[in-house]
Amino acid sequence: MKLNNMKSFYITTPLYYVNDEPHIGHAYTTILADVISRFNKNLGKDVFFLTGTDEHGQKVQEASEKRGVSPKEHANEYVKRFKKTWKDLDIDYDYFIRTTDEDHKKKVKKILLSLHEKGDIYFDEYEGLYSVSEERFITPKEKEEGDFREIKTIKEKNYFFKMSQYQKKLIKHINDNPDFIQPQSRRNEILGFLKKPLNDLCISRPKSRLNWGIELPFDKEYVTYVWFDALINYISGIGWDEKDNEKFNYYWPANYHLMAKDILTTHCVYWPTMLMASNIKLPKTIFAHGWWLIDDIKMSKSLGNVIKPLDLANEYGSDSLRYYLMRNMVLGQDATFTLDSFIRRYNADLANDYGNVVNRVVVLIAKYFNSKVPKPGEYNNIDEDLINEFKNTSLKVSKYIKELKIHELAEFIFSLVRSINKYLEKKEPWKTYKDFPNQNEVTATTLYLSIECIRVCSQLLHPIMPNKTKIVLEAIDSMKINLNFGQIKSGQKIDSIPTLFPRIEVK
Ligand code: MSP
Questions:
Q1: For 482-492, how does the pLDDT look when each residue is reduced to its tens digit (9 = 90+)?
Q2: Which of 11, 12, 13, 16 for a ligand 1 pocket mutation test, highest count of atoms within 8 Å of Cβ?
């Protein structure tokens, strides 16, 4: 039995709606979660990575009606697409949750029932502005701001969650826990939002208007509001309310709920107050990254400007897409996607720097040392400089990961890769080998250190680019992660490696 959760690490992505094809935006959050998971596994954590789909609600009901299939059939097809995309992008999640899973529905009902019994859910008539596109009531101010579409005035009886009564407690929690909402700018945004009185949350929809949802356990005429249903996945997906809560207690509270800034309020206000009302601890960090933009506008199906991740992955490989997305977005800020910048990044970092150094060193070891790792001789200053650069990499990586500075981490690893290339230029093994054919200790030292540095860099890059680095690590028999310097054994056989990243020629 697992006794403490010092080693546990729980990370989630949003549950994606099943009315949109997976695009680069969805892929980004999911790859990010995968990369953070893999790094944490390498750091010795017991990781649980949850992703899935959000399947109830008006939009899904309408989309399925249009296609003449049942909402569940409609959802099944989209689920297949998401799962295929994640597989092709080498996303190694632990569990894929669907809000239509019986187990999830049962747990949502249980929470609703207990909040209703507790008096935190009440029935009331409400007249207000309703945005069909966002599937929620909005305030007149929100209408003015113009971010909502298909607005109608609706007067109906509904169930409300007493969210307002947790406002003070939530503000205190945010103030007491500086890491609760990240980055800082988003934390400030939420604190600003909480300066105004918080409304109670309408958590039901009458079945006469919408029937594709989880029925309220205390009123058959209503279904649950889609957000109240979907947010609960974060606990239902790790065994909340099962078998002594063993798994749940091990992983909860989540280390990270990842998402983009579009769903900040639901995660930083609705979700924590729902948890407070249920006496469940709050997640450690809610992290909202920026948007991937195309021509300065957010990618979305309705604008028709989506980039399909699989098109790129099929053409250039999943690793290069993963690397580009991690390297080109400063976490927290928006980033612009262009094919041009993708190709530039690919050619410069992957084909030129990493691919080239691997190829160079493996070919030289094959040629001069019969494909066996040579035995190093004495180190000179140039060798020592390189060794020093590779010292404490493990500590540095942990720091970047802890601070979620993934693009800086990628930059750091590539500075190491470039150092190997520079080192080779200085030591010129092709020259030392020719000049001293019978005394190749200097060449041996150079190539020993180079292949060792390639080992470390490939292990560092593995969470970001699991495919190509696996080819390298298998060829040098180094799949077992150990970031300490000097692990590769002299005399060890090195297999040949195909060109990892053929240059993309721009027409
Ligand atoms: N179903 C809700 C989430 C419920 S979570 C309990 C939802 N789904 S969504 O399909 O619209 O996904 C939104 C999320 O997809 C964003 O928060 C982000 O993680 C990702 N992205 C969608 N478009 C994006 C960009 N253009 N850029 C970056 N991420 C984007 O909201």
A1: 999 999 999 99
A2: 16
